[in-house]
Amino acid sequence: MTHVAAAGEQNSLGTEWRQESPPPIEAEGVRHARALAASREGRPLEAMALLETLRREHPDNLKYTADFITIAAWANQNQQAVAVGLDLSPASLPSYALSALAKAFRNVKAYDKALECYEILAHRQPQDLDPALGKIHTLIDAGQGRNAVQSARKLLGQAPDHEGAIAALMRADEQAGNWIEALEDSEVILKRHPKNPAASRLRFLALWRLGAPHEAARRQPADLERQESAALAHDQLAFAVRWSRIAAEEGSTSQRWQGLDQAIQGLDGLANQLEAEGIDNVARRVRADEVTALADRLRMADSIATYRKLTGQGEAPPPLHARLAVASAYLHQENPEAARELLATALANEPNGNFSSRLDFFYALLESERYDEALAYIDAQVQPEWLQGDNLQLRRPNPDYPRLMVARALARSYTERLAEGQGRLEALKSLAPASTDIGNSLAATYQMRGWPRRAEADYEWLLGGNPDYPWARLGLYNSRLAVADYQQAEQDLNATEAALPGEKAAQRARRDWETHRLHELRLEAMFGNSSGSTNSPLGTRDSSIDAWLYSQPIAYQWRLFGHTHYSTASFPDAAPVRTAAGGGLEYRSRQWQASGEAYALRGDGAALAASAAYLPDDHWRFDGGYSNKALDAPLRAYQAGVNASRTNLGATYRWHESRSTSLSWEQRDFSDDNRRQSWSAAWTERVVTGPRYKLDLRGDYYTSSNSKEAAAVNYFNPSRDRSLSLTFGNEWVQFHRYDRSLKHRLDLGVGNYWQENYGTGPLHLVRYEMIYAPDDRTELRAGISYSRRPYDGEQTTLQALTLTANWRF
Question: pLDDT, tens digit, for every residue of 125-139?
Fold first, then answer.
């Protein structure tokens, strides 16, 4: 420790110490003055260090603490100001320090403490507006917009021209987000101060947020940032899209798309401009709206292309509405897998939102052949029958409730459960007989059940009550096409296309009409190989080929056709060949179908054939026909120069797609004076039905008699015979995608055959057929079969290959 001697003091050696004086201690007031000077000169940290020393040396002197808080707050050293202020009672501080502390508390988000300080200041200085303004801004920062608005209005009542009070109210209104009140406040201010920038901006924002972007654009501030002006232009176009969509939904002519087309053009132009300027965040939102608008316009390919462009521009997924819209576009473009994937992801976080998109997801499952999932999904959806159902005075029908009920019913109809679908829809119609959607869906189900006339009557009833309902017009077209009322069907189609331009269903209807108007080629071929004795009247090998070529329809009801026939068989003593060629005319109308044909048989001259069918309603069909030289007469007889005329009559009653019965009579008059009469009856019942598998049971009874004895002719000619059989018809759908399908059919038949003089023998049949439709204008069938039955008491087998093709071109 250094000892400093006083002046003249000597050490132990008698030597005098050199005198060392301590530095003078700076006076308290001087240091305070230095601190204040440092603060004024922009050295707040130096000032705070001096004041901190003084605070510690003089803890009872509140002046140093007050100045420390004030300078720290001014220097944005808010944490240090707050740390000192927390240990004090705010009321003990002078007003200037309390104001600084309030600001520091506000800056560190200690809003309750800041409000406490401003309350004390306001109490001390009731005429000073600054504490009130500080309180308002603190309430705004704290998210208490409503309280801030009330305080600001009170303050403005005291000082209606105070710029700070006006700005505080405008800011409070903006934070509160009550844009109607904000608009009112801004208008009040602007009446008194027409050029006030804060009020002008608030009015602009309020109009924008209230859904009037066009009005906001008329009043936008001159200093609006480019991001905001881009967003405003986007909102104007989005608003135009919404109104144009409503106009399109309610319109019935091609002009209904005009507004939407203009909005789409505007969206595309704005997006291109913003992308060029690098304002990508707004550009992505514009593109997302363009995706939705294109889908609304039914420009599905363009919607998908724009969406793909959008997904390539950033890592974040496009907005939900764009994903839902493009999913609808994929569904329209017959890509249900893409639609299903998008919808599954988009709806995962909102299982109860956007009912239309949930319906799209149901149809995507259905059209992806995920039938069980589709049924389970639609049955799991929930919609209340009433909105605000707890309040009898305010409740109103929920429009999505009948849509859900109809979708559940149609889910059955579309999956081949037509009886259940019909029952559900009829129950709904009894509750809401005036509903066009229910009536339209029920009529469509009648159509699917094979009752086009019943459906036609329902569609006409719907149009009688609502002539502008286009879906009934479309249904009417389908019904009239099915009943061969072609001229009226074409008029219905034209009206449908005018009302629903671009709609997938209308496009489908137009293609069906174009298909109906095409040429048609039909081929039927059979190649058989039978067993039996060499003396059998049946050929051991036989084959036949028929081809019909039809013209396009003439005057709606008529078609010309050409017909060629070839058949041959191998017998022990010969292999006759029968060929014929000719042509004729076909007629179809609402109740009649008829055809007449003239053809030449090689070696047997000319022949005529005619047939007619009368269809009085959806259930009955009566058939009749005559040919003076039937092409299906036994080849053994043809070999011997014997031909046969054929006369036939028949009646069929068809309850619906799952049940029918028929009875027919036929007489053949052979040129060798033999007369054969036969009767047949059949009953068909579908016992299993579904989208993938069906099982039909068919019972057949047949009996015939011939006027000549069997031994008197060289062809199979039992005096009397009869058979009774039961066939199990199994059909599987391998796949079915819109117009393409592949089906398999397996028929298993058993029965008994009785022939006079030969007794009874069993019948067996196994037949497999594959049915392929590569599109809606072509169908190909290929089948193989094995059958076993007695002829003249001898069991005979037949293996056959059948080929059928139907092509419209």
Answer: 888 999 999 999 999
